[in-house]
Amino acid sequence: MQERTNIPPNLHRQQGVNHMNKVLGYAPMVAEAGTAEVFLTAEDWHVVADTLFHMDTPREELPEAIEAFSRSEDGQTIHFKTADLAIEVKMI
Q1: Is 23 a domain residue?
Q2: What pTM was computed for the model?
């Protein structure tokens, strides 16, 4: 079992935003018919999930391109809505 390191909350949140920006940059390259499926490592996916759902991150700290976000009922997919795409972010 992998042990989580104690990363300062602000750094953890910055990493989450950085991963979101990478997803936003990559998604158009794999998009088909307005939908993109992007995979992150489990660790990176959890950093994004923490940033969005567990850290009370102010909306203004999130990438502007993300108009809406949610999590699937089973908790395995994060959904981003942008002006052009519906993005599903999943774990490898």
Answers
A1: yes
A2: 0.88
